[in-house]
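queue> pop job 88
queue> type: inverse folding (structure -> sequence)
queue> payload:
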């Protein structure tokens, strides 16, 4: 669930025509004061969207913000089946105030591979590879995550396939994840059009 606003102990809700500065917050309690909240744009609202303030003084929400985004730990993720080159994919994620997925642990790699993308693996337009947010565009051989701008050091989590990254044809600067290779990574030509995964922090 993700909202454009939040409330504590009913607070002073927005009321059209009321002078909030001179209102006593306790006025709000027990008189069925209500307010509407909206979901972030990529979330769909279900329920009435109403928050109401009963005599308990705790707002009750009749809403859920659902989306195609899936939650893993503190972040949300979406697989985009649209095929774009790496740069376009990065920009598309940024349109959602998100970023091309940055994979920092074995468990995150497994969750993305198995739970998020694998359900699409057997479909007619089956997805076998997708972009992740690492590249060595800026400096050959030095892979960095585009979101955090951190260099992938030896101590950082990586999941390169055997023999990768190999900069084949001296033309491979962007990183994909392969489902056929059980979640292994490969550097690949950035101009290739592939599906991709966006990640976003849940605030
Ligand atoms: Ca991540
Ligand atoms: Ca390269
Ligand atoms: Ca390669």
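queue> result:
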């Amino acid at each position: 669930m993700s909202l454009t606003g939040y409330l504590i102990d009913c607070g002073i809700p927005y009321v059209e025509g009321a002078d909030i500065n001179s209102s006593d917050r306790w006025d709000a309690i027990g008189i069925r004061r209500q307010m509407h909240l909206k979901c972030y744009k990529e979330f769909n609202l279900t329920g009435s969207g109403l928050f109401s303030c009963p005599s308990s003084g705790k707002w009750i929400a009749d809403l859920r913000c659902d989306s195609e985004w899936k939650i893993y730990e503190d972040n949300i993720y979406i697989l985009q089946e649209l095929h774009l080159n790496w740069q376009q994919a990065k920009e598309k994620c940024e349109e959602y105030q998100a970023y091309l997925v940055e994979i920092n642990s074995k468990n995150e790699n497994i969750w993305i591979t198995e739970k998020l993308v694998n359900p699409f693996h057997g479909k007619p337009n089956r997805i076998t590879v997708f972009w992740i947010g690492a590249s060595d565009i800026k400096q050959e051989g030095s892979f960095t995550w585009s979101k955090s701008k951190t260099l992938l050091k030896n101590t950082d989590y990586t999941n390169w396939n055997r023999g990768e990254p190999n900069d084949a044809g001296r033309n491979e600067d962007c990183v994909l994840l392969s489902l056929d290779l059980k979640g292994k990574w490969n550097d690949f030509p950035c101009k290739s059009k592939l599906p991709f995964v966006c990640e976003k922090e849940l605030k």
